[in-house]
Design brief:
A hairpin with a 2-residue loop joins strand 5 (112-124) and strand 6 (127-136). The longest helix has 14 residues, at 82-95. The chain has a 6-stranded antiparallel β-sheet. Helix content is 24%, strand content 30%. The protein contains 4 helices and 6 strands, in the order E-H-E-E-H-H-H-E-E-E. It is an alpha+beta fold and 153 residues long. The protein has a single domain (3-136), classed as 2-Layer Sandwich (Beta-Lactamase).
């Protein structure tokens, strides 16, 4: 599976939104409406992993607002991809880097679904750790069609 380290997100030019009038909360709501789209944080000092409801759903774990059971979460990841996960978090912490990777998660139906995680190292007043998002590649699109009522010539 692929692994790529990137320049930290903070080095990317921020998109202007003031003229649009869209809030951070609205952006998050729209992203989450499009697909399972979860947020997470790893506390480097304690090793605790905290995640939103969608991350729990992606990994088919019962929701809790406390630390996630990492043993159970890792058991859902394809055996060949588990070392990639550990390597990614180690490298991100060591190099204070951003990253993204694609891996397989047990779909609980005898197969695997493809998932992507994107994250970055954070060391600020809120503490050091890694923050990120995880989402499924499976598209669950809603299609809207319009009828053409114009007369044919």
């Amino acid at each position: 599976m692929s692994l790529r380290f990137e320049q930290p997100v903070i080095d990317k030019t921020a998109q202007s939104r003031a003229h649009i009038g869209i809030t951070d909360a609205e952006i998050v709501q729209m992203l989450a409406a499009y697909r399972l789209f979860g947020f997470w944080r790893i506390d480097i000092e304690t090793g605790h992993f905290f995640a939103s409801e969608d991350v729990h759903t992606i990994f088919d774990l019962p929701y809790s607002d406390g630390p996630v059971n990492l043993t159970e979460l890792m058991s859902r990841i394809h055996e060949e991809d588990r070392s990639l996960i550990a390597q990614t978090f180690e490298e991100a912490s060591l190099h204070r880097a951003g990253f993204h990777f694609v891996y397989r998660v047990d779909n609980r139906l005898g197969g695997y679904k493809v998932v992507r995680s994107v994250g970055r190292f954070r060391d600020d007043e809120s503490g050091s750790g890694i923050v990120g998002i995880t989402y499924e590649f499976v598209e669950k699109l809603r299609v809207v069609g319009f009828e053409d009522n114009t007369a044919s010539r």
